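Cross-check.
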Amino acid sequence: MRILVVGASQGLGKETTKKALAEGHRVTAFARHPEGVGISHERLRLVRGDVTSIKDVTKAMKNQQAVIITLGLPTKQAMGFGHSLVLSGGTANVIEAMDRAKVKRLILETAIGAGDSKHQLGWFYRLTLRVGLHHAFREKDSQESLAKASSLDWTIVRPSALTNGLPTGSYLVNPPMSYGMFTHIARKDVATFLVGCTEDATTIGKELTVTYPRSGFWRDFPRWLKDYKGRT
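Predicted model, tokenized:
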């Protein structure tokens, strides 16, 4: 499959790009600085561009079959400084470019607590995220609304706190649980799930949470601390 990864140069986007290549896909890595992916590969195409430019996004969309959006914001912007509209504006441009190019499959990564998943957060987690990072979550809410209002075959993926830990291959999808402050999941495991969704028709039209099980503060915190600092 030909997959466009939007926001491919850092963090989850980089891991998603690497995982898609490992699974045999042809990948277009789209970012302001796509060389940040840090690898070269015969099936990898790097496209430099600004997601808030419909012209740039349209160029990257050529000949794609699926799109994975992994956009994020720096902490200061997430808190509202600068009032960046990269997430909502970028997602709107991606959807418009997909419509023009007749690309149907969209995988949108947001976060636990976005949209109607607010009720899954414990009160402290809700205070920390929905209040502390209020702008980022307004933007993520908008991203989800844009996807759901589109005519695309969309899937929304909401990971819990992302870490740099080693992948376990063992995580929960839409578990009937609430989330504490240190409930988390490795980026590499989320990348595996995102890439898998591109070819899994059963996930179309669904909003899915992915996370490791919640074990309580005294178990979750040391594991989160270790994985958060990890570099793999």
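Residues 8 and 14 are 5 Å apart (CA to CA). The chain is about 40% helix and 20% strand. Passed to J.P. for a second look.
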